[in-house]
Amino acid sequence: MIPLPPLPLALLWVVPALPLAGFVVNGALALAAPRAKRAVSITGVGALVLAFAAAALAVVELAQLHPSAPLVFRYWEWLPVGDLQVALALQLDQLSAVMILVVTGVGALIHVFSVGYMHDDPGYARYFAYLNLFVFFMLTLVLGASFPVMFVGWEGVGLCSYLLIGFWFTEKINADAGKKAFIVNRIGDFGFLVAMLLIFRHTGSLDFGVVFPKASAAFAVGGPVVTAITLFLFLGCTGKSAQIPLYIWLPDAMQGPTPVSALIHAATMVTAGVYLVARCGALFALSPVASATVAGVGALTALFAATIALKQWDIKRVLAYSTVSQLGYMFLGVGTGAYAAGIFHLTTHAFFKALLFLGSGSVIHAMHRAYHATHAHEDAQDMRNMGGLARYMPWTAALMWIATLAIAGIPPLAGFFSKDEILGAAFARGAVRPAWYVFWGMGLAAALLTAFYMTRLMLYTFHGPNRTGDREREQLHEAPPVMTGPLVALGALTVLGGALNIPPLFGGGARLEHWLAPVTDAAFTPAPDASPATEWVLVVSAVLVAAVGMVGAFRLLKPEALAPARLAPPERGLGRLLWKKWYVDELYDAIVVRPVLWLSREVLWKIVDMRLVDGLLVNGTAAASRALGWVGSRLQTGEVGVYVVLFVVGVLAVLGAVVR
Amino acid sequence: MLLGPALTVSGVLFALGVLGVLLRRNAIVIFMCVELMLNAANLAFVAFAQQLGVAGQIFVFFVMAVAAAEAAVGLAIILAVYRHRHTVDLQNINLLKG
Q: In terms of CB atoms within 10 Å, which of A85, A204, A530, A562 comes out highest?
């Protein structure tokens, strides 16, 4: 192993420790002094800003060393059990570096935004405590040097996600959404656990530093064991990162506060699955079947979620399905073996999706205040109640347009480069495995839909006539600077983020790709490079598709004809099918939820619990004791004569025994 | 005095006592049969004492003392039972029946 590096890196533990300290302080404040909002803000935001600074220092140091292997810091033995030796250890390499910068950087901006967004909420301190705790677990997840440490972070972010989705738990719908997220994620976590046990069974270790170098010797390429491991890992990813078939919790997760949606359910936590696949690239590279599954599921999810987003009216739900769809792109990237492209898209997506969510938060904040001021009970998140908001919220509108152009893939914004790279990699892989041509086509179709539904969201929200209501209109205002400030910062990142990894085709140096090379080289399966002409055709077609989507939305959609939500006619035909999300929730309800409930109630409760456990075991024990007691009590006649006879018989028996 | 006849009488007395305890129902009679058994034992003690030393005779005094105490306590119990139940027939006294 590499000798311990100088100080700033040795203090890596400070990065996760700061948000943890923030959680402890804010948690104490939430219990002791929930009104101390200034102290809460300073602690909550300060912890994140300092963590970002610490992370930046560590990454600068890492860049100077640029080691070919991860730097591992072992703090103490955590689970020394026989052959299983798990240390509480953190590791920093180029991949973790990108992740901690995204988590703390975007996290800090979202914390600042939350100061404005949550300011009037009675649970202000509790909110920041949860948010800090989330960042701590997320950093544990990406810095963990072994599967168990990562799993702690993995479960921890799930817990915080649950707590924050159900943050306003007094309304049942919010609590239900939290439970749904938690339960669906359990299925994925089961996969993660099984994969972990299989890895230990076959390599004898759970440390990344031991497992990955051993992998190619321990597993045959395409063998059943490594395929099972990677597929179980991917099951974990589909839960955490909301891919088919476990994506259903993410749209419901939008019940939480909007900054939570931005931080947890768009920018960071849901990308944990992508990070996991990239981290375990050495394993996935050994299993073509699993890689194809990852890419295929990713492409399918990208397309499928995009269709649903076409017909949603809740502004946050559009963004939620958009997130599912974009996560699909990332999986298409990492499943193709283009880990750098996948992580690149993860990063740029964190920028523009956080911007979109925070922008929608700004809109919802304004709508909510307007309705609150007039005591109206309308849906503040329904786009049919919006329209023309650009006049009232020029900053929000302008910044969200930037993000929309980025996610649609219009050059030279960040999303263009990252999405193009994924599609290019998929196309190049198609030369080796034709299935990837299909995945590429699905990705391209999803890009078309993305451009369309995002333009639709912008048109209905910010343009055309206002449908909020005559009295409410006067109450619509731009958000305060504490909220628009982070938006501007994210807008800048959205514009400039593409510069991280400009491909050679445009004269760039592909810097992120080179940066990640030490991590991805172990796993990269190079596809034949396409000729520059082919690449140009791909780029132009992707841009054309995006442009067609946006122009199509401008042509087809009529914001003027839209009625407010309470007057809107019901959807019909295909529109209804999409609005109802392909009835997937209903389908799952029929084939999973109801049978499980029936089994629980009719069999496990009424038969196993009531009859078997309560009846046979608990009451049965009591009945058996009573029966025995009854038999014994028959001896107690209460008549002295009987006792005397027994006594004499006993004495004679003893005497007889003694004499003989 | 011969040991054999004395022990025979003692055994007969003891057997009579046992039979009385087993067969009679009146508490007073059963009590008297218990005394009979004690005295059978006394007789055996005295008979053995003639050959083996005076320890047996000393023991008889102990037995008599115990029998006197027992008579006091036993009769008091029987009296108390009689006051409650107006009978000393043991067949009717079975409160401990399970």
A: A562
